[in-house]
Design goal:
The complex is a heterodimer. Chain A has one domain. Helix content of chain A is about 70%, strand content about 5%. Chain A has helices at about 1-30, 40-55, 60-85, 90-115, 140-160, 160-170, 175-180, 185-210, 225-230, 235-260, 265-280, and strands at about 130, 135. Chain A has a two-stranded antiparallel sheet with strand order 1-2. Chain A is globular and about 60 Å long. Chain A starts with a helix and ends in a 14-residue tail after the last helix. In chain A, about 50% of the residues are buried. Chain B is globular, with a radius of gyration of 19 Å. Chain B contains 10 helices and 10 strands. By secondary structure, chain B is α/β, with parallel strands linked by helices. Helices cover about 40% and strands about 25% of the residues of chain B. Chain B folds into 2 domains: about 1-80 and about 175-255, 3-Layer(aba) Sandwich (Rossmann fold); about 100-170, no CATH class. The chains are: A mainly alpha, B alpha/beta. The interface of A and B includes residues 156, 157, 161, 168 and 176 of A.
């Protein structure tokens, strides 16, 4: 039984890491109804910038601040160069734009900092910690705490502030949002900047785990089942989805693995997502689409 | 014109990739009046409304609103200046409740900073209450309180039209632009909507510019009628005068050749 809980909690903590990436998607989806294909590239860009600065002798917090400033600048640039000319276009057009954007950002990151693999040390020891008889990774606990802080801050921003209401309005109907005085440009810039910040946090944690390298931008593929299960429009959905994916894939690996072969955790989340699509297409916390015919 | 003009358009021309939608239109809307824009489909009525609240920027002309003159409006400035509107094909936030929709209309009335709002500090708590109170008043005025918490996308068409009006009204506008507020309604609903528009005009002194096809409604509701045809202005004046204008009759009924 102890072993079961260790696997479960280990899975939940790993899931938090998926959630971190998924939150970035949710932000942009909430503000424009678009799946931002470039989120992975932003994670890579942030992590690569940060680690390269660190390697050039910039102190930790200065590197963090500079990277954050760069992500905000990137957000403003994207708003100006990509989103503004596409105002009031269909979501598929915006989606294609983010697809193109992902290549540009990936390319820019590697042109700027090179394509080699960097190790990243955040100064958190990865030694297992014994808590109540269970062995837990300190690093995972730190990641979970970071995610918790992020989620609380973001839900305050969305549920209580004028920006939050404006954001939902923009996603629902940009034209009407403009008519009630919402500045589309500003909302988009804010959202992309926040998504950049989330990307930075995710990039640091994932970078410390996997090394900062090109494949970091592929981590986002794991965010996809998380989003389908949690719902594309909900920050808390991204968290619950991440936990579900993390826990179920680890449990499946351990308990089903011996029966149907190992490597289960690589595909199990996608099967789970498929089941959700069949039963609950909007996910657990997503806004269900309302169509009047 | 007796009262001072709240809105004045001067020689407005608008074209899309060479296609003229509006040519050299000028007219003035007096403070406190209900002005109807009429004309056949494609005459440029909606385009003109879009020019007034800044969705379209005309290539030529001047817009004067509340004493300020500009080449073209921008939606945000229009909203700040007190112009609110509804759309021809209902543009509501379908996933939100009726109350939230109306609250978005009061977006610009909030003064607390986002940090105050997030942490419920400083000006935020009192302001939240005031916004909600104001929104409730609008709901009561248009008699949609029973649907306060309903998701807008699930409401019937006529009610959605009313919610959209409520959202515009919540901004306490000086100028209310209504794009076919009665389209697709039956006689009873039309009468009710007319009533609401008149009440808004009388009680709050709101100036209204509306587009409507039902000539009966237009004649009974408006103080001033502007007739468009093929992007040009063909008539402008009190309803009775416009009704007798031969050019207007030609635009509407056709002439014998």
């Amino acid at each position: 039984m102890e072993f079961f809980f260790e696997v479960l909690i280990g899975g939940l903590l790993a899931g938090v890491m998926y959630s971190l990436v998924a939150i970035g998607f949710v932000l942009i989806y909430k503000a424009s109804g678009v799946f931002n294909f470039a989120q992975g590239a932003m994670v890579l860009f942030a992590a690569l910038t940060f680690v390269s600065l660190l390697e050039r002798g910039v102190p930790f917090w200065a590197a963090f601040a500079v990277t954050l400033a760069l992500m905000v600048a990137l957000a403003l640039l994207i708003e100006r160069a990509v989103l503004r000319p596409l105002v009031n276009r269909s979501p598929i057009t915006l989606f294609m734009a983010t697809l193109g954007l992902s290549y540009v950002i990936e390319g820019a990151a590697q042109a700027l900092w090179g394509a080699q693999v960097h190790g990243l040390e955040l100064g958190i020891s990865d030694e297992p910690l014994e808590l109540g008889g269970l062995l837990l990774s300190q690093f995972d606990l730190f990641a979970a705490a970071t995610a918790a802080v992020l989620v609380i801050a973001l839900s305050l921003l969305f549920n209580r502030t004028r920006i939050g209401l404006a954001l939902r309005a923009v996603a629902d109907d940009p034209l009407a949002a403009q008519a009630v005085g919402v500045r589309l440009q500003r909302v988009w810039a804010v959202v992309w900047a926040v998504a950049g910040f989330v990307g930075l946090v995710a990039g640091l944690l994932w970078g410390a785990r996997l090394g900062v390298q090109f494949s970091l931008s592929l981590v986002v593929l794991k965010a996809l089942p998380v989003l389908i299960i949690g719902g594309f429009t909900s920050v808390s959905g991204a968290i619950v989805g991440g936990l579900l994916v993390g826990a179920s894939e680890k449990l499946a690996e351990v308990y089903l693995g011996p029966w149907i072969g190992g490597g289960l955790e690589n595909w199990f989340p996608y099967v789970l997502a498929l089941l959700f699509l069949l039963v609950r297409p909007a996910g657990l916390f997503g806004e269900r689409a309302i169509e009047r015919v | 014109m007796s009262a001072a003009a709240l809105l004045e358009l001067q020689d407005i021309s608008l074209s899309f990739k060479g296609v003229r939608a509006i040519s050299d239109i000028s007219f003035a809307v007096a403070e406190g009046e209900i002005c109807a824009l009429i004309g056949p489909n494609g005459a440029g009525k909606s385009s003109l409304l879009n020019v007034i609240n800044g969705v379209y920027q005309p290539q030529q002309g001047l817009i004067r609103f509340a004493g300020r003159e500009c080449r073209a409006m921008r939606p945000h400035d229009a909203a700040l200046g007190g112009i609110a509107r509804t759309f021809q094909n209902i543009a509501l936030f379908k996933g939100m409740s009726v109350l939230d929709n109306v609250l978005t209309g009061r977006n610009l009335k909030r003064r607390a900073g986002w940090l105050e709002q997030a942490l419920r500090l400083g000006r935020a708590p009192g302001e939240d209450d005031r916004q909600r109170e104001a929104a409730e008043q609008v709901l009561a005025f248009l008699r949609i309180q029973p649907w306060r918490d309903a998701i807008v996308g699930r409401l019937p068409y006529g009610l959605q039209k009313r919610v959209e009006l409520a959202r515009a009204l919540a901004a306490e506008p000086r100028l209310l632009l209504l794009d076919e507020p009665m389209a697709g309604m039956n006689a009873e609903e039309k009468a009710q909507m007319s009533r609401f528009i008149l009440d808004i005009n009388r009680e709050f002194g709101t100036t209204v510019v509306l587009i409507e096809h039902d000539i009966g409604v237009v004649m009974s509701l408006s103080d001033h009628v502007v007739v468009l045809d093929y992007g040009r202005k063909v008539g402008d004046g009190p309803p009775d005068e416009v009704r007798r204008n031969p050019e207007v009759i030609a635009a509407y009924l056709g002439t014998r050749h």
